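Let's practice the habit of predicting before peeking. Look at the sequence and jot down your guess about where helices and strands might fall. Then scroll down.
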Amino acid sequence: MTTLVWFRRDLRLADNPALRAAQAAGAPIVPVFVFAPEEDGAFAPGGASRWWLHHSLSRLEEELRGRGSRLTFRSGPDTLTELLRIAADCGATRVLWNRCYEPASIARDRRISTALRAAGFDTASFNAALLHEPWTVENRSGGPFQVFSPFWRHCKALADPDEPAEAPLRMTSPLAWPASCALADLGLLPRPDWAKGFGAAWTPGSGAGHEALRRFLKDGLDDYGSSRDRPDAEGTSRLSPHLHFGEIGPREIWHGARRSALRRGRHTTWRDSQFLAELGWREFAHHVLYHFPQAADRPLRQKFARFPWKSNAGELRAWQRGSTGFPIVDAGMRQLWKTGWMHNRVRMIAGSFLVKDLLQPWTEGARWFWDTLVDADLASNTLGWQWVAGCGADAAPYFRIFNPTLQATRFDPQGTYVREWVPELARLPCEWIHRPWAAPPLVLSAAGVRLGTNYPHRLVDHEAARAEALAALATLRE
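Done guessing? Here is the structure:
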């Protein structure tokens, strides 16, 4: 009984329940990847995600060939049609996959499962992406959580997730392999190649993901609580794209962190670590989106549907290009464009600036991040943007408006991060690096800074913009 294992965002061989179930049957296995972005609608993978996906699939193909197998590639507007064609090519009678939790994915999977079973196939799906699936976690009233702290307390009180399974050493091949297009035929790489900087910043693939986890647990875990908010330091794990594409699973991270903590004698406190809490935020994001699928493009708090957003294409474009005149914001947006990633603290600062200082709709920021982040994840992206806009689950209080200058002074005190990504300001003294508009003319001249020429004037005065934002937010209480 040949089995198709349909890969999506589970691009790994270890801790892959669908693959493990196929292995347990002892029959030939045909690994399959179908690229059908039309089925994702408005949330088809963005440009940066496609770059990562190409390279991750290449690594997965190498791993499979090392085990006597291969990856069958197909593309088209309809995944079901391609699965049926592949099954006909190799005589498969069983299709297994790991679940995705976005609204479009859930609808597609239900449709495909129903059609395959009607056609006589055995099917099964598994959890490879989350510690706890969204429908298994309930508040005391039997409903979904909308606040993170009680959600994570509840999750930490549950039994540990299963230990991750090892990758298979060998895989049984079918007598005849189905036809496959080439990976390049999927058209995932950008033309022209605007992603040249990504390769210097990232190595996609399961091997790189596991190495990043090993290195972080060895060298970064102890200082994570104090360094995670510092964009001028390598204080984060940078596991988010590896997690999103399933190159490493949350169970592997959970148990890796547990073993690391136990070696350090932290037998009772390891579940309370800030690092695992970040994994908890990812779980919470998927929990919220599963139970409130409309949140992908509409505010969870209904009153925000009448918020008086502005529409200013010029200011939006300046934000996207990193030309707002606020160095910490510009540094983050340039880092994003060059590497496909932005430090999480700076994401909050840049997001707050867009929706609170410029009063641009949060959906504009979410769309830009969706296209430019290598770790673009619909659940996490939605939760983050609705948090900073104040309109989502566990949202920031409406009066919390980040002051970009104070944030920069606190988290990039020497201007190291800004100097790296906004080099035209690199020669400014620390006193002025985060507020060049206030620097004396002689200081600007000595540093080679010409406001309005080689670095822009501020788009807004923050204090005035804050007052306007508070006034706009006050209208929602009327």
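How did you do? Residues 2-129 form a domain with the Rossmann fold fold (CATH 3.40.50.620).
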